[in-house]
Amino acid sequence: MSLMTRPFPPPPLKIGDLVIDPPILQAPMAGFTNAAFRQMVREFGGAGLLATEMVNARGFVWLDENEAEHPDRLWGVADEPRPLAVQIWDNDPNTMAKVGKRLVEEYSVSVVDINFGCPVRQVTEKAHSGSYLLREPDRMFRIIDQLVKACAPTPVTAKIRLGCSRESVNCNEVARVVEEAGAAALTVHGRTAQDMFRGNADWERISEIKSHLRNIPLIGNGDLDSAEKVVAAFQNYNVDGVMIARACLGRPWLFAQAAAALRGDPIPPDPTLDDQRQCMLHHYELVRDRFGEEKGTVLMRKYACCYAQGKRGARHFRTHVARVATAGEFYQVVQEHFPTQ
């Protein structure tokens, strides 16, 4: 670990003219960070900037041209509190610029973020997008440059990984390209695309990137699953902000704990198991109100598994909740099988 002399508590994060305080961001996660989840995070507090699921830019254009409803992943975006980032992905600069302009003009989003980090094969090998583009810095430049021009003055940011593989780590070069193209901030996940989510995030590598940026902030992402780790990231590594991802999915109170730790306040304890159960049920109500009982119940299965993760009896609960199809079944399984200790 590279111990550094860093100001503490860290100052607010600036993305263009937008001030993010505290400098703790909620990661965009496909299939999870919809409006219901974002509301849960807001109710606990502590996140300086929230983000949508990643939106397929090409799919958005198709829906628009065919006068269909805009993507479910934009549910809630028009009306919810700001600041709010929307993350988009594709490999065509014109398509990305067109969608970015719409997000700014019609949805008044606070930040347009570009996904250059998704390692999932459907996005990389099939669509030549996400982390696939790390092998094409010139195309990344064109995408960012056109999007920045289309979205001005709304800031455009980029999220990357260290590289496509451990043999082709090129995050330093890519960081320079991102800044030169006009992006207002860079977020780096400390793994390669090849790693997926295996092993540990390399915060040393993330920290080294800072020396390759002149003016824009660096946001670190990976393995931040406690308030103590958030504090350590700021104290020990050269980052201006942090992004919390998978660890928050069943713990929307994690941001509030991290924010308290950064202020130097006592870290609030986790809610009691009974309170966590009630939190999950409230989350279910938000999902069901939007998607209806059938679709909402199926969608809630994965969230319910996240809420139970790490608790005694979690596997038993997952086995039962994975089969629920109605509200009655969901409430019964929660009552009978959600961990109690």
Automatic annotation (TrEMBL):
Residues binding FMN: P28, M29, A30, Q87, K159, H189, A245, R246
Catalysed reactions, semicolon-separated: a 5,6-dihydrouridine in tRNA + NADP(+) = a uridine in tRNA + NADPH + H(+); a 5,6-dihydrouridine in tRNA + NAD(+) = a uridine in tRNA + NADH + H(+)
A GO term for molecular function: tRNA binding
This enzyme's EC code(s): 1.3.1.-
Keywords: Flavoprotein, FMN, NADP, Nucleotide-binding, Oxidoreductase, RNA-binding, tRNA processing, tRNA-binding
PROSITE patterns: UPF0034
Cofactors that this protein relies on: FMN
Function: Catalyzes the synthesis of 5,6-dihydrouridine (D), a modified base found in the D-loop of most tRNAs, via the reduction of the C5-C6 double bond in target uridines.
NCBIfam families: nifR3_yhdG (TIGR00737)
Protein family according to the UniProt entry: Belongs to the dus family.
Protein name listed in UniProt: tRNA-dihydrouridine synthase
Gene: dus_1
